[in-house]
Amino acid sequence: MAQTIVKRSVRNCAILARAQLALLWTRQREVSTKVSERIEELRPRIGITMRIELETNRFYLARYYGEAVEAAGGLPVHIPLIPRANYVRGVMDSIDGLLLPGSDSDMDPLRYGREPHPKLGSVHPEKDETDLLALAEAEERAMPVFAICFGIQSLNVSRGGTLIQDIGSQQPDAIKHEQGAPRDRPSHRVRVLDGSILRDLAATDSVAVNSHHHQAIETLGSELVATAWASDGLVEAVEDPRGDRFVLGVQWHPELGWERDNLSQALFARFVDESRKSAHSTATEGNRVVVRA
User: Fold this and answer.
1) Catalytic residue status for 53
2) Which of 38, 71, 139, 274 could form a cystine bridge with 144, CB 3.0-4.6 A?
């Protein structure tokens, strides 16, 4: 009889132990799920303006921008090119950082007070206007901005700067800035300004970059400083020196080959981190969504 009671007691203890372990495992999974959900909530939403294909009337965007943003910890959000102020304002209310990508078009020179050069490329008004509206909103909100290729040109024009409309014909001593395929191949070096954000990320004063542009910055817009130059003197990067915001633009394409390039990864990581901090700061102040009359 005593042995039977002992066996039952041991069996009951074993059953209880298994039940407690199962409960503990369930709670751990619930905690893990909640932590994962919280991490997703903390991922900043990065708005990326799209391109337009005139022949088919389609908005589109190369995959690499979104992939690089996601890998850096952000949530990429595509912004269709609908150049209406209320629409753009509404989109900007829902994002934490603005990424301006490259484009297969040129900024309309009338927007910076110049007549069209004979070598001016295709102009897409929807792209120009949407980018400029988004930049105006970002400026008002001190929202983090990362501008790439056409994006750095949009940024400069939005600040009152001007562009070289065609490097080949207007800058005869320039190096080759339209390298062709393979597009991710670093084709020339840029000199980086000491003390700049770019210099901190590059950890060197000279880096090799790819190059896919026939236009470039001519005169700098307000609150922008040049932080990198090609050997021919053309501006390859700009930053906003004001301490209350993060604004950085590069003339090359860090999204191309970002998986294998340390500087590209550092650029996206810094931008996403700045967007995360900006979102947290805004939420803390109770102004996550700004309502305007």
Assistant:
1) no
2) 274
Q: Do 143 and 239 belong together in one domain? A: yes
Q: Which residue has the tokens 């009889």?
A: 1
Catalytic residue among 126, 137, 255, 274: 255
Question: Does the active-site annotation cover 13?
Answer: no
**Domain identity same for 164 and 53:** yes
Q: How far is CA 234 from CA 147, 239, 251, in A?
A: 17, 15, 10
Residues 105, 215: one domain? yes
Q: What is the pLDDT of residues 136-157, one digit of tens each?
A: 999 999 999 999 999 999 999 9
Please state the pTM of the whole predicted model. 0.84
The residue from 129, 212, 253, 274 that is catalytic is 253
Distance CA 293, CA 291 (A): 7
Give the contacts of 123 (CB within 8 A, at least 6 positions apart): 105, 106, 107, 108
Position 238 in a domain? yes
The answer to whether 255 is a known catalytic residue is: yes
